[in-house]
Amino acid sequence: MSMMSDDLLSSACEVDVCGVLSMHALRLASETPSACSTGTTTMATIRISGCGFHCSNLPKHFFRDVRMDYQEIIAGTVGKDNTFGTCVGHVKSGPMSYARFSTDDRTGRIRGYVGSGAFTDDPLETFGGAGVVEIPQLQQLLHYICENGFEHHVCREFLHRCRNAP
């Protein structure tokens, strides 16, 4: 999935069809790879920072350093030798935008949210592909996500000027 996303073929794990839709919208807007990662983890020390983390199929485009390794979350279940292929590394810093579109089964509508922030150079000791994100009014965004039943994955891309923008 990492290689496909890096080649601008959006793909997301966990049969996340709406996640792929969100990635594709960001990819079309930026003409760069997008990624789906956990978006509901905050860092207690800084109220506007969170953890952009995945265990990880992030595209190589996202990393300042990356290596292939074993997927630590499911290795205990399926065996370490069955999990090779995870991208492990730190996400590079820079401005980013995010989006999440989902279906509302009760109303039969598609809904979503979008915004912008930045990946920082702050250290983050974990596994998979990870980076610290700064998002203005992050706590309000997290309340909105939880109160409206959005999934824990949010799609991100590095904020680049769109080709057709002034």
Question: Describe it for me?
Answer:
The structure is a single chain. This protein is of the alpha+beta class. The protein has one domain: L-fucose Isomerase, Chain A, domain 3, CATH 3.20.14. It is about 20% helix and about 35% strand. It contains 4 helices and 8 strands, in the order H-H-E-E-E-H-E-E-E-E-H-E. Strands 1, 2, 3, 4, 5, 6, 7 and 8 form an 8-stranded mixed β-sheet that branches. A hairpin with a 4-residue loop joins strand 5 and strand 6. It is globular, with a radius of gyration of 15 Å. The protein starts with a helix and ends in an 8-residue tail after the last strand.
Short description:
The protein is an alpha+beta fold and 166 residues long. It has helices at residues 2-6, 17-30, 72-78, 138-147; strands at residues 34-38, 49-54, 63-70, 84-91, 94-104, 109-119, 129-134, 153-158.
CATH superfamily: L-fucose/L-arabinose isomerase, C-terminal
What is the 3D form? globular
Query: Could you spell the SSE succession in H and E letters?
Result: HHEEEHEEEEHE
CATH fold name: L-fucose Isomerase, Chain A, domain 3
Q: Describe the main β-sheet briefly.
A: 8 strands, mixed
Gross CATH architecture = Alpha-Beta Barrel
The number of distinct structural domains comes to 1
- What percent strand? 35-45%
**With helices defined by DSSP (H or I, 4 residues minimum), what is the helix count?**
4
Helix content: 10-25%
Question: What is the averaged pLDDT score?
Answer: 83
Q: pLDDT under 50 segments (min length 5)?
A: 161-166
